[in-house]
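Dear Dr. H.,

I hope your travels went smoothly. While you were away I took the liberty of generating a structure for the chain from your last submission, since the lab meeting agenda had it listed for discussion. I wanted you to have the full record in hand beforehand rather than looking at slides cold. The sequence, exactly as received, is reproduced here:
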Amino acid sequence: MKNQSYKIQHAVSPREFKQMDTDELRESFLMENLFVEDQINMNYTHYDRMIVGGVLPVGKDLNLETIDPLKSEYFLERRELGIINIGATGEIIADGVTYTLENKEALYLGKGTKSVTFKSGGETNQPIFYFNSAPAHTTYPSKKISEADAEKVIIGSLTTSNHRKIRKLIVNSVVQTCQLQMGLTELKEGSVWNTFPAHTHDRRMEAYLYFDLPEDQMVCHFIGEPQQTRHIWMKNNQAVLSPPWSIHSGAGTSNYTFVWGMAGENLDYGDMDIVKPSDLK
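The corresponding predicted structure, in token form, is as follows:
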């Protein structure tokens, strides 16, 4: 367990949210240091019991172990897991089966998978594994999802600074899951706005991981009820939580890519309550 750590993040209501200062917002929603060499770091959230984690295996293989809040014999005893590789080519061994993930490929592991090992890539070939995990009521088959398997959509425009490619990786049109959904969105050069026009979906929570962002650039992530928005400045390889009642949108000082992950009431990707830009405050 010395190579694994976790933090519990309790849910925040809209009433509490309105009273928070910058430091309190960052403490409650931002995950700044998910990726630490030879560590598995995770945040156990009280939003639909989503777990958000990062793995950077450089000098050793890392085994995913259960954590005390789960009160389980092994991590996926009552959970499902989605993993996306945002680094160099890497390997994951799940119950004796080896899966090779290229950059921006995904792996779904079903409930009941007893052992999960993230293989070391060494100093010169470093995979960076990002994962989301949610409670599961049944077992669906584990599956690797490549770019060819993904459902791809190009939306937005350069005129509105939000021309982007959405890659749906772990969604019910691609792979069966209980409630977990994951994918990534790549902003085209010259575009900086994501998830715009903004929306909420009170049926599901969401988490974002921003990456492919130059080290000297930032993303300003917007959060809150549509008429009570706040912002959080974020760096490369940082993640942020979005409660079901909150918008989740951002603008960068450069283009970037982000992983989105959801858990909650349904698996309808299009279930969104759109907010007109002119209605935001």
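Two observations you may find useful: The domain at 4-279 is CATH 2.60.120.10 (Jelly Rolls). The chain has one domain: 4-279.

With kind regards,
E. W.
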